[in-house]
Amino acid sequence: MPTILQALLNGPGSWGVTEEEKRLEYGVDRLELKGEELFRGITINAPAPVIFRWLLQLKVAPYSYDLLDNFGRQSPRQLTPGVEKLESGQTFMFIFDLVGFMMERSLILRLKPIFTLGGMVGDTAISYDIRDSEAGSCRLLVKIVVKYPWGPFGWPGRLILPPGDLVMMRKQLVNIKELAEEQAARESGSAA
Q1: How many CA atoms lie within 13 A of 149 on its CB side?
Q2: Is residue 138 in a domain?
Q3: Has residue 79 been placed in a domain?
Q4: How far is C-alpha 50 from the chain's CA centre?
């Protein structure tokens, strides 16, 4: 798994994904939003339903650097009852709306307009897509599409968003990986 420094030096447009994975169809593609595309990915040794359930925890907390993006509160380390009930328009990570989903496979989120940083970021959508991989593991692939404002108004967002998101989302994906793998190990241990 590449370090943050390696990823930033290679360019913040992608981390943990192959060129082939970048060409796959993602849930966010259904929105037909055109803009800069950023990709993130991680292998998780857990079944898709367990990973998806932990993704739903993004309704409760961002699971990244809690001091920065969760008001200093620790993201829950246990599943929160009730978050598995999904409806379009629900809030995720405080700043995104749920705009689409496929149970146990995909979440599609769109940045609430109030959080575009005065228009510097522009329209932003993300999909978290779970793909089956080797036996007992899955790939959690993320595609982010950002439509920056035209001209100089979009320059600050173009400079800040890709590296900032890389640092924050890498931490988020590593946390989800650890929590999902712990849960999968507990569940397989109790089934034995």
Answers
A1: 14
A2: yes
A3: yes
A4: 15
Edge to edge, what strands does the sheet with 106-111 contain? 14-15, 36-44, 138-147, 123-132, 106-111, 96-102, 91-92
Angle between helices 48-56 and 155-191 (to 10 degrees): 130
**177: which residues sit within 8 A by CB, 6+ positions away?**
42, 43, 44, 140
Tell me if 151 is assigned to some domain.
Answer: yes
Q: What is the CATH number of the domain that holds 104?
A: 3.30.530.20
**In the chain, where do the E strands start and end?**
14-15, 36-44, 91-92, 96-102, 106-111, 123-132, 138-147
Domain that holds residue 145: 12-187
**N- to C-terminal Cα separation, the chain:** 31
Burial bucket for residue 74 (CB in 10 Å: 0-12, 13-18, 19+): exposed
Tokens of 92: 């995720």
Per-residue pLDDT tens over the stretch 122-180:
889 999 999 998 778 999 999 999 988 777 766 666 677 777 788 899 999 999 999 99
Flag whether the pTM goes above 0.85: yes
**Structural domain total, the chain:** 1
Distance CA 9, CA 32 (A): 30
Q: Which of 61, 45, 21 is nearest to 138 (CA)?
A: 45
